[in-house]
Prior knowledge:
CATH topology of the largest domain: Gyrase A, domain 2
Largest sheet: 6 strands, mixed
Number of strands: 17
Number of helices: 20
Strand order of the largest sheet: 8-9-10-7-1-11
Structural class: alpha+beta
CATH class of the largest domain: Alpha Beta
CATH architecture of the largest domain: 2-Layer Sandwich
CATH superfamily of the largest domain: Probable tRNA modification gtpase trme, domain 1
Helix content: 40-55%
Number of domains: 4
Amino acid sequence: MQIATETNKEIDQVRNNCGFFFLDGWSILTAKGKETFSFLQTQTTNDALQLNVGEGQASAATDRQARLIANFSIHRNSANEACLLSEESQTLYNHLESYHFREDVTFEVIDQVLLALQGPKSILVLEKLFTALPEKPNAILQLDLDGKKITLIKKSLTGEEGFVLCFSPNIKEDFLQKVLFANTEIQPLEISAQAQETLRIEAGIPVFGKDMDSKIILPETGLEHSSVSYNKGCYIGQEVIARIKTYGAPNFALMGLIFEESTAPPMNGSIFFKEKKIGIIKSSVRSPSVGKIIALAYLHKDHRSPDIEMDVIIDKRPYKTKTCLLPFYQAPTRKEHSKKLLNEALKIYKEQDNLDKPITILREAIDIYPKHAEAYEALGVFLSKQDKLDEAIALMKRLVEINPQEIMAHTNLSVYYMKQGRIEDAENEKGEATALQFEQAVEKNMADKLKKKAEEQKKKEMEEKIEMFKKVLEIDPVDQVANFGLGSIYLETGRYKEGIEPLTTLVEKFKDYSAAYLLLGKTLEKLSENKKAIDIYKRGIAAASKKGDLMPLKDMQNRMNQLLHSSP
């Protein structure tokens, strides 16, 4: 299974720039009426009543056995109106209507074009069109463009930051031209179905009809981490979902597999290990990020530890595989992307003594993350070297507007004004910088004193607790509470080496105590024992998976991902 050069180009475009594609088969279901959210609260898995206007959330609808009917996102347009974005809008509509009797709520599947704009620079494209954009995941805004209504939802469908734009079909061509050419420096590339599939599998995003169906219970999909509220009232399927959380993990759950072979495993192929069925294959693709074939697969809880190599049989054919936590690819944040661009610009300048290219890159870094003070400073310096002092001054003023407490911005403004002979302006900015330095120094001094006092009090309390726990351990060396308490305090107070013994005792004597694995892993990370931490997290994830301890499981999975991706 080889990925064409063009597809690789499209994938790279979304990972580093901006791409678009239409969500064919997706649609929007509107819900309107005074009882919209109280009704949705009884029919969906997440807490719809907690949504404020403009907010959204991932959610799902399940039957009484917690089998998946539809997964979707809910977005609150107004006090009494919501829109539900889904691939199964008609199925969702039928389900909701079957439980809809006298409630004041009406549903309608509306005819809209849904355009996905994905990639770190998608926000730069939209900023040319709109004065405001949704900021949080699943947030929604109703916007106007040339008198036409546009609905904008912040939603990643590729692992990268992205948006879904919803608009009437009769403005499709005109609006598409505006999106494509809104920013002359960034022209979004249309992304093929193959590239879309690769991006979403790398991001570990399952889709209904491929990786999920009506036979799958929601906790098996891994979506419960984002789609389920365990603090809300009753809804259809709630008893089963709550029971699984309380008493243990589902037997099978979605996991990642990496294959050594060059041939992709068959869709829905049964996975056998030592003549025992341990799972089933779902979506697979050759991943440019991993450099191998990857697949989403439902694996038995005994085989869901990460980074485990297995020789398996899938539909009578042998494969060498390794388990992997989802996602396969972790997209950098906008801040991280901006920092990367800053380092790239500085490197080019150092090696080539060239200003034009670093300036272009730094402009991009600031556009992606407008609060990146170091990028502003570097760009200001480079512009001043080109005698573009007015532009450098405008840049520093922009930074001051974003952060009035940024001393560096005032200092640089003073320098640039002095170069222009604007002595009074230079002195004013120098005075502002000096005043801020003094103010911040006083605040820091007071904060340090208060912190020191609080730390001394806390240290005293911690020492008292340590002595208490030690006395308990003199009586019972394997006491669970005392060992955990000691490990927690030692981690919190930076006494990492002392924390190893009590926490190791816990994971050896209480092998299903998932919280202890998490604490021990954190302690080992602090000691830069990353390989040992990875091993502990593997064991902890296996224990948490069997018990269904979702919070430590998710935390350990995230930490494991970070360590694995940072390892050489």
